[in-house]
């Protein structure tokens, strides 16, 4: 193991960084930069030496080259993920090898640097890695994500894991299922929490303004540009940029976005100079992004860059046990200490409702019901769960197949019948004109509890 000057420094409480690179010049450069930041670097040149060092005293950060004489950086990323999960690890990739960076992020790397290593970017990466919160904070913002169903517990655990990385994340899920809330929580639990969280609804920006909205513009770039302006990327510098409804970006803008993400640099409209930006991208859409790629509406290269890790927000109808705590939390939020109460019948009616608009729809239903109810007691009728609301629009959504569409209709009809009969399956079967056996089969097939 070759130790650098930094290792010979008395350690005391110094923050320790393990650097793995077999090129002496790069080691020297990183070592010098880290020691100027007041950190103690231990430099080694192989996978074997890295393992040995990691199993010794703990490190607060690890930086590894991808190509090493006895293996590759991915092995180190995996080793750390398995045995030293508290240590963030970043990889240094050869210029233009984006797939390597993506593979490292998927394996659990916190971030990556492309060669030639820019000192500014190296410093930004080190600073954000060292800001990572240790373990569970006293006031955990994840508590604002209500629901203890197994799928929500899984979502919470995944958010916690994703917060420790800089990898781009794609959040999928139906409208109103909490995609933006999840993105905010990832940001709040991450090393970037002190920086801005900038949400952007990609579908709401006129096409001719997109470039200047995303990257900013210089004075005089076009008529009306009477001063310099920052774009979303600059506004999110040091923080997180949340691209909602990313599938709505026109193809021309997708190319520019890909470039900005890959290079970590942007150029204002009307400027010749590029500026470095340090932004983590989280994107979301209620559409199926893979289908958009297949149809040629979304670039495959951008898809792979954004969809490094996917987080799926489950629809509310797949986690009925979350409805009572959500109702309680929403009413509490709307009305404070003495919120109106839901009758048992009203709660049951909610449990039979398919919630095409998910938690946002539940919020709207409760708000409307409290305006309609008498004396702070909400009955099932106050909820106004009209049959025509049971399932939203009538024709297939986005990429829905005919089978999905028919199953959705069948599901709606059954849930509606069950709602009317207060959960009595025999009566619901009669109402729908099918036998009890057929009803039982359908309930099983559609996964209705
Ligand atoms: N698990 C949850 N606990 C508490 N509130 C939630 C939860 N999920 C969603 N919400 C609330 O529901 C509303 C809609 O959530 P959000 O905006 O995150 O959904 P979305 O999936 O981004 O919607 P869209 O697809 O329409 O952009 C917000 O008010 C949010 O706070």
UniProtKB/TrEMBL annotation:
Name one matching Pfam family.
Answer: Sigma54_activat
Which Gene3D superfamilies did the record assign? 1.10.8.60, 3.40.50.2300, Homeodomain-like, P-loop containing nucleotide triphosphate hydrolases
Q: Which residues form a coiled coil?
A: 359-386
Protein origin, superkingdom: Bacteria
**Residues found modified as 4-aspartylphosphate:** 65
Domain Response regulatory residue range list: 16-130
Where's the Sigma-54 factor interaction domain? 145-371
Enumerate the InterPro entries for this protein: AAA+_ATPase (IPR003593), AAA_lid_NorR (IPR058031), CheY-like_superfamily (IPR011006), Homeodomain-like_sf (IPR009057), HTH_Fis (IPR002197), P-loop_NTPase (IPR027417), Sig_transdc_resp-reg_receiver (IPR001789), Sigma_54_int (IPR002078)
Task: Drop me one GO molecular function for this one.
Answer: ATP binding
Assigned keywords, A-Z:
ATP-binding, Coiled coil, DNA-binding, Nucleotide-binding, Phosphoprotein, Transcription, Transcription regulation
What does the entry give for GO biological process? phosphorelay signal transduction system; regulation of DNA-templated transcription
What protein name is recorded for this chain?
A: Two-component system response regulator
Starting at the broadest rank, the lineage of the source organism is: Bacteria, Pseudomonadati, Pseudomonadota, Betaproteobacteria, Rhodocyclales
């Amino acid at each position: 193991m070759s130790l650098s000057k930094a290792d010979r420094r008395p350690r005391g409480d110094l923050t320790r960084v393990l650097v793995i690179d077999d090129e002496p010049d790069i080691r020297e450069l990183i070592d010098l930069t880290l020691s100027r930041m007041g950190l103690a670097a231990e430099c080694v040149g192989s996978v074997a030496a890295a393992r040995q060092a990691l199993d010794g005293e703990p490190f607060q950060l690890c930086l590894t080259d991808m190509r090493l004489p006895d293996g590759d950086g991915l092995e180190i990323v995996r080793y750390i993920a398995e045995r030293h999960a508290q240590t963030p690890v970043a990889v240094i990739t050869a210029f233009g090898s984006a797939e390597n960076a993506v593979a490292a992020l998927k394996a659990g790397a916190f971030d990556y640097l492309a060669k030639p290593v820019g000192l500014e970017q190296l410093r930004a990466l080190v600073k954000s890695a060292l800001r990572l919160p240790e373990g569970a904070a006293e006031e955990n913002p994840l508590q604002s994500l209500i629901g203890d169903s197994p799928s929500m517990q899984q979502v919470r655990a995944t958010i916690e894991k994703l917060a420790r990385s800089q990898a781009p994340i794609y959040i999928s899920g139906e409208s109103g299922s909490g995609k933006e809330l999840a993105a905010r929580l990832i940001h709040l639990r991450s090393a970037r929490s002190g920086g801005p969280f900038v949400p952007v609804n990609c579908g709401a920006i006129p096409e001719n303004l997109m470039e200047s909205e995303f990257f900013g513009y210089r004075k005089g770039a076009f008529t009306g540009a009477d001063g310099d302006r920052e774009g979303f990327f600059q506004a999110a510098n040091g923080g997180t940029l949340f691209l909602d409804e990313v599938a709505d970006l026109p193809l021309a803008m997708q190319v520019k976005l890909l470039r900005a993400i890959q290079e970590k640099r942007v150029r204002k409209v009307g400027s010749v100079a590029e500026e470095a930006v340090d932004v983590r991208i989280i994107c979301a859409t209620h559409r199926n992004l893979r289908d958009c790629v297949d149809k040629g509406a979304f670039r495959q290269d951008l898809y792979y860059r954004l969809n490094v890790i996917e987080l799926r927000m489950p629809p509310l109808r797949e986690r009925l046990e979350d409805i009572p705590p959500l109702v309680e939390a929403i009413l509490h939020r709307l009305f404070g200490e003495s919120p109106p109460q839901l009758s048992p019948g009203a709660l049951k009616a909610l449990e039979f409702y398919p919630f095409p608009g998910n938690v946002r729809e539940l919020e709207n239903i409760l708000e409307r019901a409290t305006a309609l109810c008498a004396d702070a007691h909400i009955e099932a009728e106050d909820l106004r769960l009209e049959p025509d609301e049971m399932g939203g629009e009538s024709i297939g959504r986005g990429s829905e197949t005919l089978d999905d569409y028919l199953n959705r209709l069948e599901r709606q009809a059954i849930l509606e019948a069950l709602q009317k009969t207060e959960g009595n399956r025999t009566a619901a079967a009669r109402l729908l004109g099918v036998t009890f056996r057929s009803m039982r089969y359908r309930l099983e097939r559609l996964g209705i509890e």
